[in-house]
Write a structure and sequence with these properties.
The protein has helices spanning 53-62, 64-69, 75-88, and strands at residues 8-10, 17-19, 23-28, 34-37, 45-50. The protein starts with 7 loop residues before the first strand and ends with a helix. The longest helix is centred in the C-terminal third of the chain and has 14 residues, at 75-88. Helices cover 34% and strands 25% of the residues. With 89 residues, it is α+β, with helices and mostly antiparallel strands. It comes from Fictibacillus macauensis ZFHKF-1. InterPro entries: YlxR, YlxR-like_sf, YlxR_dom. Pfam families: YlxR. Residues 9-83 form the YlxR domain.
Length: 89
Amino acid sequence: MKTRKIPMRKCVACQEMKEKKELIRVVRSPEGEVFVDLTGKKSGRGAYLCNDTACFTLAKKKGSLSNQLKVAVPDTVFEQLEKGSRSQG
């Protein structure tokens, strides 16, 4: 049997390469709306973050998520990320 290639992505906060399914995708839609994409399949420009509160805080502090998406990320997105990480962890 062939081994499948595992897609890797880089966390915009800690710059660590991880498997795509381990990371959380944040998307800027073509209309400019920013939201968390739990399916990982929505259309738009995406950026990935580790499922870790430290990475969420670092991304907010450095502005790396806003830089990657080329738009200001509202605080509600960070609140949604933190709420989701607590329920999973």
